[in-house]
Each structure stands twice: as structure tokens, then as C-alpha cells.
């Protein structure tokens, strides 16, 4: 199965990587990009001393990433992916991750569990369309979820890059809680993460992609959710899906 290599932790980056994997003409050896992030440390490696607002930024980021991986949560807001729209996310350490995106003309679903991503075939087709490549998804595959292995785990959808820098001019309260702002930027893309002071939680993310902006807020920490990945008869590996759709 072709692995998706992502150069960032955002949904647009993941979608582009998936589209490139589908558009590829073969499954030859892939060279790792120098921009690929290192895998996140497992939750068990958390420091025995909790991070505080005065801790070095790397410690704050690590603590929040580990905290988010280790608890359930819900998130909602706008998105810059696929031309814009709204999204909801649910994450649970045991059950996995689920995202639902809604736009003017679409509703898309994506799941992730144990490092395997399940993307609806319509979502993948729309991603390719945005990149100038149209594919026709046969009716028999319309309800199929295309699977790929992420090299970075399911927290790729919300993880804060370890290149983040403090942005004290953006520190603010979110839902009544004081936060520390961490900024991550690369060219025309930028993300500002708002980390709750006194707890290893991400409360908000503001993103900019080529002039488009979005805001996501995180809530319901520790609440119970039901996340069920698609059954095996509704899934298909990326390589097989490519063969059936493109003939290559």
C-alpha cells in the first residue's frame, strides 16, 4: 500500500499528498522528502513535569500534542480545503479520528485509525479536480473509502508542528480561558495555535492558505464519542483504486 508522506500537519497538505499518490503512475521506490516531519513521540514519553506558560516553546508544543493524542475531543469551524466550507472533527485515543466536511455542493467524510486513513472517493476526486486533474469515479465505487497509510499517525490532522514560535501579540482568551499563541508559517501558509495555559490542550487554530482563512475551535475534552471506521467491504487500497479509475 502506498504511504502518504505529508509535509505539514494540515488537512490541505494531507489531501494534496493523497491526490499525488492517486495520480502517480506506479508504485516505485519513494524518496523521503527533507521536509517530511519526524513521527510524533508516543504518549508514554510525556515528561514527568507538566509544561507551564513559562516553559520553552518546544516543551509546550510537545505537551499539548501528547495531551491531545491522549484524550477525546470535538472540534468544529471553517476550512480552507476544497474551496472552503465547514468541518467537524471527533477524536478518541481508542476509536480513532473522524472528520466531516460540508460545502455548498458536497459532504465528505474522512476517518483515521491506527495510522490508516479512510478518505471518501468523492473527496479524493474533488481534491484532484482542484489540482486540475479530473477523474470519473464509477457508480460502483461511489460509496468506497480509499485507504492509505500515513507515516505520521492520526494526529496529523491536529498536531502542532515542532517549528512553532511564540506569538505573544496574539495571546488571548478562548472560551474564557487564557491561552498562549504559537505561530507556524511556510510561504503563503500560516497557522496560529492557541494553547490553554495550565492544561495540555489546543483550544483554537486560525489558518491562512493563499489568502483564504479558517478558524477551528476545540471542545468536549474527555467526552464519549462513537467513531466507527468504514467496514472492509466499503474500503479499497489507494493502488487498487487508482488501477480501477485510471487504468494504471
TrEMBL record:
<keyword id="KW-0732">Signal</keyword>
<feature type="region of interest" description="Disordered">
    <location>
        <begin position="229"/>
        <end position="248"/>
    </location>
</feature>
<protein>
    <recommendedName>
        <fullName>Lipoprotein</fullName>
    </recommendedName>
</protein>
<feature type="region of interest" description="Disordered">
    <location>
        <begin position="27"/>
        <end position="92"/>
    </location>
</feature>
<feature type="signal peptide">
    <location>
        <begin position="1"/>
        <end position="23"/>
    </location>
</feature>
<feature type="compositionally biased region" description="Low complexity">
    <location>
        <begin position="41"/>
        <end position="56"/>
    </location>
</feature>
<feature type="compositionally biased region" description="Basic and acidic residues">
    <location>
        <begin position="236"/>
        <end position="248"/>
    </location>
</feature>
Amino acid at each position: 500500500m502506498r504511504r502518504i508522506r505529508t509535509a505539514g500537519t494540515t488537512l490541505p497538505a494531507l489531501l494534496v499528498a493523497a491526490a499525488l499518490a492517486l495520480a502517480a503512475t506506479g508504485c516505485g521506490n519513494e524518496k523521503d522528502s527533507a521536509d517530511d516531519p519526524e513521527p510524533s513521540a508516543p504518549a508514554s514519553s510525556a515528561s514527568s513535569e507538566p509544561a507551564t506558560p513559562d516553559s520553552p516553546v518546544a516543551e509546550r508544543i510537545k505537551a499539548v500534542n501528547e495531551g491531545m493524542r491522549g484524550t477525546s475531543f470535538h472540534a468544529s469551524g471553517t476550512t480552507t480545503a476544497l474551496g472552503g466550507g465547514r468541518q467537524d472533527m471527533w477524536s478518541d485515543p481508542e476509536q480513532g479520528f473522524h472528520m466531516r466536511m460540508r460545502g455548498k455542493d458536497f459532504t465528505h467524510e474522512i476517518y483515521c485509525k491506527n495510522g490508516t486513513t479512510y478518505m471518501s472517493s468523492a473527496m479524493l476526486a474533488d481534491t484532484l479536480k482542484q489540482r486540475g486533474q479530473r477523474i470519473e469515479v464509477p457508480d460502483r465505487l461511489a460509496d468506497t473509502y480509499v485507504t492509505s497509510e500515513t507515516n505520521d499517525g492520526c494526529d496529523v490532522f491536529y498536531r502542532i508542528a515542532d517549528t512553532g514560535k511564540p506569538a505573544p501579540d496574539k495571546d488571548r482568551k478562548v472560551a474564557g480561558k487564557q491561552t498562549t499563541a504559537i505561530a507556524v508559517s511556510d510561504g503563503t501558509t500560516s497557522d496560529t495555535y492557541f494553547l490553554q495555559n495550565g492544561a495540555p490542550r489546543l483550544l483554537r487554530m486560525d489558518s491562512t492558505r493563499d489568502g483564504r482563512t479558517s478558524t477551528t475551535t476545540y471542545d468536549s475534552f474527555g467526552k464519549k464519542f462513537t467513531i466507527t471506521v468504514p467496514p472492509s467491504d466499503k474500503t479499497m487500497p489507494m493502488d487498487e483504486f487508482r488501477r480501477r479509475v485510471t487504468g494504471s
